[in-house]
Amino acid sequence: MAPLIPSSQPWVEKYRPKQVKDVAHQDEVVRVLTNTLETANCPHMLFYGPPGTGKTTTALAIAHQLFGPELYKSRVLELNASDDRGINVVRTKIKDFAAVAVGSGSRQGGYPCPPYKIIILDEADSMTEDAQNALRRTMETYSKVTRFFFICNYISRIIEPLASRCAKFRFKPLSAEVMSSRILHICNEEGLNLDQEALSTLSSISEGDLCRAITYLQSSARLYGSSISSKELISVSGVIPQNAVEALFVACKTGDFDFANKEVNNVIAEGYPISQMLSGLFEVIISSDDLSDVQKARICKRLGREADKVSTL
Amino acid sequence: MGKRKAVIVLSSSEDDEVRDRSAGGHQRPSKSRSNPLSTSRKRIGKRSKETSCVGSVSRPSPKLEAAKFATLSEDFSDCLEDLHLARGNQYWKELWIDKYKPSSVAQLAVHKKKVEEIKCWLEDRLTKSKGRSGNVLLLTGHAGIGKSATVRAIASQLGAQLCEWTTPTPTLWQEHVHISNLGLRYVSKLDEFESFVEKVGKYSLLFPNNFGLSKVPIIILIDDLPGTNGRAAFVKLKKCLMTLAHSSQLPTIISITEFSEIDLGKGSTSRYEELISILERAGAQKVAFNPLTVSSIKKVLSNICQEEKCDVTLELIDQIAKTCGGDIRNAVASFQYCCVRPDDFLLSASSTQMTTNTRLDFTKSRSSLLTGQNGHEPLSFFLVGRDETLTLFHALGKFLHNKREIPNALDLDLGSESLVLCKKFVRKPLKMDVPERVLSQAYGQARPVVDFLHENVLDFVSDGAINDAWMVSSYLSDADCLLALSLHIIFPSLTDMHESKSISQLVAASVAVRGVLFGNVQPMSSRWHTIRSPKLWQIEHLAHQHKNELMGAKCDTYGIGVSMSEIVTEYLPSVKWISSGITDGLGDGKYEHYPIRVNSSSEHGFVVYDSKESMSNEESDDDEIEDW
Amino acid sequence: MLWVDKYRPRTLDKMFVHEEIAQNLKKLVAEQDCPHLLFYGPPGAGKKTLIMALLREMFGPAAEKVKLEQKTWKIDAGTRTIELELAMLASTHHVELNPSDAGFQDRYIVQEIIKEMAKNRPIDSKGKKGFKVLVLNEVDKLSKEAQHSLRRTMEKYSASCRLVLCCNSSSRVTEAVRSRCLNVRLNAPTVEQIIEVLELIGKKESLQLPPGFAARIAAQSNRSMRRAILSFETCRVQQYPFTVNQAVPAMDWEQYVSEIASDIMKEQSPKRLFQVRGKVYELLANCIPPEVILKKLLLELLKKLDSELKHEICHWAAYYEHRMRLGQKSIFHIEAFVAKFMSIYKAFLIETFG
């Protein structure tokens, strides 16, 4: 890729913090982990929290800081959801990797290089329960020579036997300020021009997900060049403009079927993604003043059901 | 051996023997002992009384061992004899099936209408002058429902001589070698049959010479068509039958036993259908025998019971009648078998009855029947009884007709006490077994069952009841979703997959069947309905064909990016318009064009499926279906 | 050649609608910084046109020299080998195909094709444009597994090829795929834009358009450019010179559906339900997609319905449409919807008229 289009390295990778201490906003986690790094003795770990809060970054940073670039390849196995992680992979790939013994824990090139390997399982909550169960056995068998880092959004989707073997770290959603500062940093680096309005739009459409915010920023920078307005950000993100959602909401409130129908047809013709429209409506309904709580509850129940239908497809 | 020894020790007196016997009777459910053994026990008891020293000796000397061995071997031969003994030392000289073969029309258990029908036909043929065509009568039906017996009885009543063709005993291989060594040519059964048919054609010419003035009318009965293997043989058989049907001068009765699909696979049923249709086309009249009703079998059995003076309870007779599946031969045979030890059978019968009633999971039922043989269950009565299979169409008929008990005031009271249901959910009790069981007996696979129900159910919903129609179709839609689900679940292992697949299919079938039963609140009053084979299958086939055609054409004309639905819904209609050039007036003319094209193609589909459709015809004569 | 194809804009500069997006795409190509792209929008919005123009912009006229290949893929799927036949449109620089045509084996196709494309990518003398573009249509119809494997291969081979994905509804494309693409939403052209285009075509074909005629076609087109142009051409064939109040012919299947609708309105009984089933069968046999039938049927029924029933009917239509997607055999669900409608409507009639 590099020789072809040098500029298109994802910014997410480009600006990923390389050190644990650089991870934004997760002070407690960083404090504990820094200790770990100093002693080079770490347990199995489970990072959970909303997307884009630095879980993957942290895991990778630890691995890098422990082994350094030379040993990294042989000591760390990264598996994310895009890799095939059925029960067979757990049985073969992970086992094979874990089974190979490692040398003694001598320091090399300024890195601690502890005598174990690290297996990073990104998006672990998308693993099947069977695969997780199989993993449990592997963890026990090779616990002397391997450490597992699980990364997931929902801790409830990790089976209890796995979770209980790990030190759990919860990652908080990023606050708007932290995000803005990071974004501005990138803007400076890339020579982008972002006004205040665009900045706040960006942090609202990315919903605390820094990863997503950076992706949006890069996409709009590609499409629209160096000065980016909030409108352009919205069009890139595929988020439905607020007024479209409002219009539908108003139409629904009239109780007039034909009117609402027309509005719905309009939404379809505009090609707005339905799932986004539903979540947009949800926001509007929750924050609406002239609906009673019971009404809100009922509407949300219905919304939830429809959202389910969309997602099962 | 060890067990036997124990018995010898125990049974040292007459009293003990009785105790042992009764204990044996009760023990048997838990232990799996076969019948001869238990009778041998009794024998041993007797013998041990004669040689009373045996029991008390704890460490037998060699001499005693030898004596014991002698007694044992005697026992063994006694056992063998026992098999031929009825209770009370009465020898079975013949099988009851032969003994109580109906000799007169009155004794027949067959439905009177059918008997009358055949009788009329025979009388008609015998009295009228010869030389007319259509001298062939075709009897069809399951095994053992009295086809031949009916003919024999009628023939004897009419005083006619019955001339039977039965398939000769098959030639053994050694025999075949022997014969060919002798220089004789092997004559296949089919060839023999062929020559017989030829003879029949000429028989009427020979006949006056043979019997002179006696003028005994002759009826030819072909009881068993020779088996055919391979297409060529089958064609030959067909030809034979054709000539027979055309040339026969004497009244000829052909009885064909209907076998269910599962026994022999699809090929043979279609052949069987084909034979029937050929004969029918050749002018043969067809009388289809339905399985006998439970009540008539019961009547026959109790008659036999009186004759034989066996003390069997009504319950047992009831059991046998119910389980034989309308096969009277089987019923009598098992009845005779049961009379060896009626008490045992009653016990096991009632216990199996219990288990089957509580058993809902109907796939398991078959396996548990098998395990009953060597497992904890007693010698299962179902092993004796005929395997209860219904044809799929029978089962469908039951579901669609939706027969329910007439409510009884008392029952309703009871019902309201035990479980209170909203009035609109209350249904009268079903006049059939648990639907799932009926389905299992029919070997119904979920998908075809659902499809068949969908195709036919609307015929059975009464006219105004659109709400019922909705309820039914909604349940069918549920069932469809469940079926689709069974395809999509991804299973970790293969065994899991089979299990949960079959379970979700069972559930789907159950939902469909029960939905049909429940939703159809006011079923149409019973009348004769044909069960159609699902048109959906043709439509799917057609759509598939059509799609393939389009796929071929699509890439050439429209490029790949255009989706199927765009082509069909937008391009095609427009292109049709545009390419047809200038037309007169508005679109009506071309609009007509559209459905017609569909119709013609679907008619084509019908031709293909025609044979299937005739197969799916099902008579649902009221009285016969509801009883058994 | 149909007018739809004849007047399709060939380059990004000539786009009638979505000019802004076209310009942005042009910029992307010019900077040689082209990410994976995902185009989504309702049918007839111009996705296809835009993609073709984009390819031309990237590779010049060579992109238009395409040939159709019916290629058989041999795929080693663990224990067995699967053979799949799939048509693809290929030039030296790009391959276009419709992976959902492969049915439930779509995931193998996606993997296999991208792998192969990565293997034999063209090498220019200048070392430029050393990547291929793979255009995948109807990605929203791909199974979950296929989308998953798409994502994986996207990452693995991103150096050697660019993906251009095209779909109607981006909700049905997994987040993972979406987040790796530059999402481009194409809205349906507005009625005014359609009128403009129709008038332009009319001028080029030197036709006399009566006032308001183009507007009427546009109004019936449901904001689909393709539909509008097709019906325009149909009108031309049907009758020319145009008269002021010439009827715009509906598609034949649509007329058939509206006939079904009026059947349903006339009588509500199991017998009628059975007849309706027969008619729906005819549509299905002609490969009209069941969801399209259901949607059109709903629209026709809504037209004739009292407004107080409308939302209930709509609810049930949605309910059974969802069922239809879950289930296997669409007729079961369409029929259940019709039965429900009949049931509701009959109750309504009895209530109002006794």
UniProtKB/TrEMBL annotation, chain A:
Q: Which UniProt keywords apply?
A: ATP-binding, DNA replication, Nucleotide-binding, Nucleus
Would the keyword Membrane be found if you checked this record's keyword annotation? no
Q: Name one GO biological process term.
A: DNA repair
The membrane spanning regions, by residue number, are none
According to its UniProt entry, the function of this protein is described as:
May be involved in DNA replication and thus regulate cell proliferation.
Annotated GO molecular function terms are: ATP binding; ATP hydrolysis activity; DNA binding; DNA clamp loader activity
User: Which compartments is it annotated to reside in?
Assistant: Nucleus
Classification via SUPFAM superfamilies: P-loop containing nucleoside triphosphate hydrolases, post-AAA+ oligomerization domain-like
The entry assigns this protein to a family as follows: Belongs to the activator 1 small subunits family.
Please report the name of this protein according to its UniProt entry. Answer: AAA+ ATPase domain-containing protein
Has the keyword Glycoprotein been applied to this entry?
A: no
TrEMBL record, chain B:
Asked if the Swiss-Prot or TrEMBL record annotates the protein with the keyword DNA-binding, the reply is no
InterPro entries for this protein: Checkpoint_prot_Rad17_Rad24, P-loop_NTPase, RFC_lid
Keyword field: ATP-binding, Cell cycle, DNA damage, Nucleotide-binding, Nucleus
Answer whether the UniProt record assigns the keyword ATP-binding to this protein: yes
Subcellular localization is given as:
Nucleus
Any one Pfam family match given in the protein's UniProt record, by short name = Rad17
The UniProt entry's sequence similarity note says: Belongs to the rad17/RAD24 family.
- Which PANTHER family does this one have? CELL CYCLE CHECKPOINT PROTEIN RAD17
Name of protein: Cell cycle checkpoint protein RAD17
UniProtKB/TrEMBL annotation, chain C:
**Protein's UniProt keywords contain Zinc:** no
| Domain AAA+ ATPase as annotated: residue spans | 33-192
Pfam short name (any one): DNA_pol3_delta2
Q: Where in the cell is it found?
A: Nucleus
Q: Name one GO biological process term.
A: DNA strand elongation involved in DNA replication
Indicate the principal place this protein occupies in or around the cell.
nucleus
Question: Which GO MF term does the entry hold, naming one?
Answer: DNA clamp loader activity
Keywords, comma-separated and alphabetical: DNA replication, Nucleus
What does UniProt give as GO cellular component?
Answer: DNA replication factor C complex; nucleus
The entry assigns this protein to a family as follows: Belongs to the activator 1 small subunits family.
Q: Which PANTHER family match?
A: REPLICATION FACTOR C / DNA POLYMERASE III GAMMA-TAU SUBUNIT, REPLICATION FACTOR C SUBUNIT 3
Stated role: May be involved in DNA replication and thus regulate cell proliferation.
Complexes and interactors: Heterotetramer of subunits RFC2, RFC3, RFC4 and RFC5 that can form a complex with RFC1.
Protein name per its UniProtKB record: AAA+ ATPase domain-containing protein
Organism equals: Vanilla planifolia
